[in-house]
Every structure is written in structure tokens, then in C-alpha cells.
Amino acid sequence: MAKNDPYAALRFREFNIFLLLRFALVFGWSMQFVVIEWQVYALTEDPLSLGIIGLCEFLPAFFLAPFAGHIADKKEKRNLFALCIGLFSLISFGLFWLTSERIESSWETRTILYGIYGLVFFGGVLRAFFGPTIFSLIALIVPKRVYPNAATWSSSTWKGANVFGALCGGFLIAWIGVHYTLGLIFVLVMIALLLVFQISRKPILNKDSGESIKESLRAGISFVFNDKVILGALTLDMIAVLFGGAVAIFAVFAKDILDAGPKGFGILNAALSSGSIITMLATTYIPITKGTGKKLLVSVFGFGVCMIIFGASKLMWLSVLALFFSGVFDGISMVVRQTILQLKTPDEMRGRVGAVNSMFVGSSNELGALESGIAARIFGAPLAVVLGGTVTLIIVAIIGVKNIPLRELDLQEDIATHEQKET
């Protein structure tokens, strides 16, 4: 095997453009999430309302994902990505307008709240298409031999945008207010829209073979559920996000438990992602393709332990530390999962497999927000997080024992095979 090149993917111009536009897009999306969570909780002072935000985004993202994957496989990826970004700009502008002083002074709080929920629902529709489109586009920008490196840089960029987006979101709420922060987000989305056209149009690898939509969807879902490695990796990440995550109720911790205010709210959000990005950048120099399965299991288990500590903490410094190390473990699991998917998915099925990944992982963020909101209402936020982390540990142990192919997974042979084919 050739010597590891930590900058292999960055040697391709279009991949650099992709990273830049993805940073702008996710940075804006991350800030928007923080701002909306804070605004809705300020309007309602009810943790369940934060869960409703998750439900509004989960429903369309989950149920439209298979159809979105089918479309992504059949359509040209660059233009589809541009269309998604353009429609997302409408959501950003809508939220900016909805939080203006004129609207807030003339509309009832309930009407504004329903408007926010409606725009979040529309965002869930777009989320169904973003996942499979981005997953497919990356594979068309770089050769297969650098997929692991590309997955690492892409995930690092995504997490880095989350770090600064969450941090800036919290601070900007305090400095310039919700309305103008949402205006900045709209500008970022428009920048991403301009950048996407610097990427050339890509060939459609899955030509129309005459199969029906039903047959196409069944083929994608069957592929994932018949591959124990892919299914196990997706399940682990889904469980960690669904039960172990607590992002949706960080506002409750910041305001009511840690008494940290909007700045502390931004710090809590950023702490989780900052650990991830540091780990991801480290993996560009120290690949984690050897003993991949065991590292994935250990990382998700460690994530669950850290979330238990966070839930039980009443100290700001300990909460931040627990979230930071949970991000470290999350960073490892994300890089491993993305590398598994890129290496083991056939080119003609990337859209559909990306859609199933979105259903498992992307949508579990929103469903996890609902679960967190309901559990926080019933048990209180601290106990809800501790119980969720405990469930994560139990399920990781079960998968580790039952799923032998995943536990014994080593990706070095797959990478060596692709290197030989392309040299």
C-alpha cells in the first residue's frame, strides 16, 4: 500500500470548492438551528416545543428519503445540489422575515411559532435530498483510492462548520439578536449557491434501466439491510444520536441547569463538535482503517459514557469537558461510517444508499430531538440524558456481540484493492 497522503483529496480543485461551499452551508445551517432552538424556547419556555421542532424536520426527511435517493441516482448531481441550496435560501429568508420587529409586534406568538414550524418542515423536505445528493457528488469529484481521505476532510469540514456555527450562533444572539443573525445566515447560503456552480456537471452513472420507482427503492433498501457491516454501522450511529444525543435540549441545560445564558448555550453546542473536528483532522495523518470495526464499537460506547457524565453534571466546566470528549468519540465513528459507505457502495446505488443513511442517521437527529424533548418533560433534562446514554451502552454491547462481520471489519484490504485498480 502506498504511503498515506493526508492531503490526497485536497489535490483536486473541485473537492476544495466543495469543502468551501459545504462549510458555508453547514455553518449557516448550524447557526440557524441554534437560533431557532433558542427563539422557540424563549417564546414557549417548554422543552417539548424543542422536540416538536425535531418532529417537524424528521417527518418529511425520513419518509421522503427513499424517493430522494431514487431521484439522486437518476439526475445530474451538481444541478440537483444547486436546486436544494436555492430552495434552502428561501427558508433562511423566511425565518429572517418572520423574526423582524414588525412581524413580532403585529402577529400573535402562536402564529409566529407555527410559521417557524412550517419553515422547519420545508427544511426537512430539503434534508431528504441533501444527504443522498452530497454523498453521490463526493464520489464523482475524487477517485476511489482517496475516498477515505475525502470522507475525513468532508466530515471534518461538516463538524468544523458545526463548531463555529453553534459557537457564533450563541454569541450572535447576545450581540446582534435573533433577527440579524438569521440575516447573516441567508448571506452564507447565497455564497454557497454561487460556489456550487464552480463545480462542473457530472455524468449520471445510473442510466434509466426501465425499473420502476418501487423496484429502485426496494433494491437500495435491500442492499443496505443485506450487508451486515453497513447495517451495523448505520444502526450504531442512529442509536447514539437517537438515545445518546442531547443537542435539542442544550437550551434547557444552558438556561435552567447551568445558568450559562445564550453564550453558554453556544459553548455547549460547540464543545461537542470541537472534539469531533480535532479527532477528524488527526485521522488524516493517522488513518483508522486497521481494526475498523472494533474502533467503531469503542467510539460509540465512549460517546454514551460521556453523555451520561454530561447529564449528571451541574458544573459548566465538567459539562463542557464531557461534551468535548463525546465529540472526540463521535468524530471517530463518523469518519469510520462514511469510509465504510463510500468504499462498499456501488456507484449506481450511491443516491439510494445515501438516502438510507439519511433515514438512519440524519433523520435520527430530528427524532432524537423529539425523544429528548418528551423525556425531558417526563423525567427532567438531566435524568433524560443519563437514561439515553445508558440505553446507548446496552445496544452497543449487543451489536458488538451479535454482529461479527462488523466487529472483525478491517478496511485496509479494500483500500489496497482500489489502489491497484486505479494505478
Automatic annotation (TrEMBL):
Q: Which GO terms describe its cellular component?
A: plasma membrane
Q: List all membrane-crossing ranges.
A: 15-36, 48-68, 80-100, 112-140, 161-178, 184-200, 229-253, 265-288, 300-325, 374-401
Q: Keyword Disulfide bond on this protein?
A: no
Provide this UniProt record's keywords sorted from A to Z: Cell membrane, Membrane, Transmembrane, Transmembrane helix, Transport
Instruction: Give the location in the cell.
Output: Cell membrane
Task: Give the record's membrane topology.
Answer: Multi-pass membrane protein
Protein name stated in the entry: MFS transporter
Supply the source organism for this entry: Winogradskyella flava
